[in-house]
Amino acid sequence: MTTLPPLYPTARLRRNRRFEWLRDLVAETSLSHKDLVWPLFVREKDAAPTVASMPGVRRYTLEELDEALTRARALGIRTVLLFPVIPPELRDEVGSESLKDSALVFKALARIKALAPDMGLMADLALDPYTSHGHDGLIKDGDVHNDSTTEVLAKVALMQAQAGADIIAPSDMMDGRVAAIRHLLDHNGHDQVGICSYAAKYCSALYGPFREILDSQGFLKGGHKKSYQMDPRNGAEAIREVAQDLHEGADSVIVKPGTLYLDIIHRVKETFQVPTFAYHVSGEYAMLKAAAATGFLDEKRTLLETLICFKRAGADAIITYSALEAAQWLNEV
Question: Taking the CB of residue 308, how many other CB atoms lie within 10 A of it?
Answer without folding.
Answer: 16
